[in-house]
Automatic annotation (TrEMBL):
Gene3D superfamilies recorded: ARM repeat domains, Hypothetical protein (EF3068)
Protein's UniProt name: DNA alkylation repair protein
A Pfam short name: DNA_alkylation
Organism annotation: Anaerococcus murdochii
Length: 226
C-alpha cells in the first residue's frame, strides 16, 4: 500500500498557491490546501484508489493518517479510499468510522462519511440503535451524520427512523449559530433528497412540523416540490 509521504510529494509537485488561498478562504481558512482542482486530484490519486480497491483489509493506521493530515486534499483522499473499500466495511466498523469523522470535521468530510456510515446496516436493529445514539450526541457533526445517513436510500428509506432523528434534533438546544445552521441545513437536505422519491411523505412531514422547523430547513426541503 502507498505511503502518505509519497502522496504528499506528488500533491506538492502540482501545488497552486494562488488557488490554495482561494480554497482555504472558501473553507473559512480552517484548513491548508495544495490548491489542486478536484479533477487533477482524482487523476493523481487514481492508481492509489485502484490499489485500495484490491486490498483484502482496511489499513486503519493509514486512514487515520490521511484524515489527520494538515492538507485538506489528503483528507479527501482518505474519504475516496474509504468509498473504494466500502465493500470491506461491516457494522463492526461503526465506531471506527465515527472516530474518523471527528478528525478535523467540517461539512465537506461529514457529508461524505454520513453515507458511508449509512451503508453499514440498512434494516439492522443494532445499526439503528447506534445511529439513534449518534443522533443525540453532544457533537453536532455526529448528529448531522445521523440526520443524513439515509440520503442515498431512496425508496428503502426508513421514514419512521428519519422522522425520529429529525424530531430528536429539533429538541436539542443549539450552542451557537454555526451549530444551528449546519443542523437546520442537514434536516432540509435529508428531506429534500427523500422528496425526489416520496414528495407526498415529505410534504406531509413539513406540514406537521412546520412550527418546529426552521425557515432554512423548509426552503431546502421544498426545493424540488414547487
Amino acid at each position: 500500500m502507498f505511503t502518505i509521504n509519497e502522496i504528499e510529494n506528488i500533491y506538492k509537485s502540482h501545488a497552486d498557491p494562488e488557488r490554495a488561498k482561494k480554497m482555504a478562504a472558501y473553507m473559512r481558512n480552517k484548513f491548508d490546501f495544495y490548491g489542486l482542482p478536484a479533477g487533477l486530484r482524482r487523476d493523481l490519486s487514481k492508481a492509489y484508489i485502484k490499489e485500495g480497491k484490491k486490498a483484502k483489509s482496511i489499513d486503519r493506521t493509514l486512514l487515520t493518517g490521511l484524515f489527520s493530515n494538515k492538507y485538506r486534499e489528503i483528507n479527501y483522499l482518505g474519504l475516496d479510499l474509504l468509498k473504494a473499500q466500502s465493500h470491506l466495511l461491516t457494522i463492526g466498523d461503526f465506531e471506527n468510522l465515527v472516530d474518523l469523522a471527528q478528525i478535523r470535521p467540517w461539512w465537506d468530510t461529514i457529508d461524505n462519511i454520513d453515507s458511508i456510515i449509512g451503508g453499514l446496516g440498512h434494516g439492522n436493529k443494532e445499526f439503528e440503535e447506534k445511529i439513534l445514539d449518534l443522533a443525540q450526541s453532544d457533537n453536532f457533526w455526529l448528529r448531522r451524520i445521523a440526520i443524513g445517513h439515509q440520503r442515498r436510500y431512496k425508496d428503502k428509506t426508513d421514514t419512521d427512523l428519519l422522522a425520529k432523528i429529525i424530531k430528536i434534533n429539533l429538541e436539542i438546544p443549539v450552542k451557537d449559530k454555526d451549530e444551528k445552521f449546519f443542523i437546520d441545513k442537514a434536516i432540509g437536505w435529508a428531506l429534500r433528497e427523500y422528496s425526489k422519491t416520496n414528495p407526498a411523505w415529505v410534504g406531509s412531514f413539513l406540514d406537521e412540523e412546520s412550527k418546529a422547523l426552521a425557515p432554512l430547513t423548509i426552503r431546502e426541503a421544498s426545493k424540488y416540490m414547487k
